[in-house]
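Structure (tokenized):
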């Protein structure tokens, strides 16, 4: 496997002849050249990639697994949402294929998305919110208790900002959060509106 020497974790896979599998749900569509994800960003030869159609690629349902034919053949027999359950509707699959095609050429949208991400992160941090570190457009606002995440989500809903709380068992106990996702379809004013709503609601609830 060809890996980048700048990424020691991937170099270890070379050393031990290990397979690299990456859950690229927070990267597909925006990280790396043409939005091709962590492998493209790091130069690592990723063997198996899982990604979602529900984030950068536009919010449709479902996701995908890309990998060697043997893995795909096995998953076609064993993967839960593929067999003994309804797989992706053809219209969603077609829409997602189009989203992948658009993402390939969307450097301008990626630049807008990353600018919004930096602006939103900076705005929330300045307001006093505790954010999970990272650079992707998926920005978790850490709140601790599930009730806080639910109260903040409700207060934001009243202000015209729709967000959903995440809490146990999706995340560990005491690490409830609201997970926000930036979008290139928003304007800068929209981003500022959301920051303002977070700040107001956060102050109202004594979170910041
Ligand atoms: C890291 C990670 N992997 C996988 C998933 C599952 O994605 P989906 O709910 O779109 O199937 C998520 C969803 O939030 C995620 O954050």
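Design, position by position:
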């Amino acid at each position: 496997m060809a890996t980048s020497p700048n990424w020691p974790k991937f170099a270890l896979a070379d050393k031990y002849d290990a397979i690299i599998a990456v859950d690229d749900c927070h990267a597909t569509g925006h990280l790396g050249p043409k939005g091709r994800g962590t492998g493209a960003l790091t130069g690592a030869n990723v063997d198996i990639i899982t990604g979602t159609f529900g984030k950068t690629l536009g919010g449709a349902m479902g996701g995908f697994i890309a990998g060697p034919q043997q893995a795909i053949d096995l998953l076609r027999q064993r993967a839960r949402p593929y067999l003994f359950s309804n797989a992706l509707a053809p219209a969603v699959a077609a829409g997602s294929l189009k989203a992948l095609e658009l993402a390939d050429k969307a450097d301008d949208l990626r630049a807008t998305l990353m600018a919004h991400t930096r602006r939103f992160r900076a705005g929330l941090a300045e307001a006093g919110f505790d954010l999970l570190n990272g650079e992707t457009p998926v920005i978790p606002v850490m709140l601790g208790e599930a009730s806080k995440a639910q109260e903040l989500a409700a207060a934001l809903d009243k202000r015209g900002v729709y967000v959903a709380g995440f809490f146990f068992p999706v995340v560990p106990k005491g690490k409830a959060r609201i997970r926000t996702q930036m979008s290139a379809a928003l304007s800068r004013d929209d981003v500022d509106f959301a920051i303002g709503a977070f700040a107001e609601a956060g102050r109202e609830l004594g979170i910041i």
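Reviewer-requested clarification: Residues 1-5 have pLDDT under 50 and may be disordered. The two ends are 48 Å apart (CA to CA).
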